[in-house]
Amino acid sequence: MLRSVLGALAGIATAVVTVIFMEWVSHTIFPPPAGIEIMDTDALNAHLATAPVGALAIVLAGYIMATFDGVFVACLIGRIQPFVYALVIGVLMLAGTASNLIMLRHPTWFSVSAILGIILSAWLASQFAAKGLPKRSDAA
Prior knowledge:
Elements: H1 2-29, H2 41-50, H3 53-77, H4 82-103, H5 108-132, H6 136-139
């Protein structure tokens, strides 16, 4: 039981670190305007309206990679069915992404791709983990 919880926590932490890293990459390659305040939603919405597609694509890739990484790490550490981790981490990633999409006006292609990408990524990670990890009786 403890290993299952630790797996889920490690998966969540991995997902968060991946998102932060990919947003850093995006901001390094495509710096936001100088002096933009992160708490100023009007300024952020104005920036998103003119943000390069590449900047948004990197962030989108980060959401999808974070979901895959998080589910896979959780499966490696934990000992419950991979679908459970896919469900838990996938729902948390969807909730975080949905709150971001509600607060800020992203392009439609970004919003649709993020939601579908997270769902597909969680499912794929659980499928890879299910095929590659030892069965419960073998892992004991």
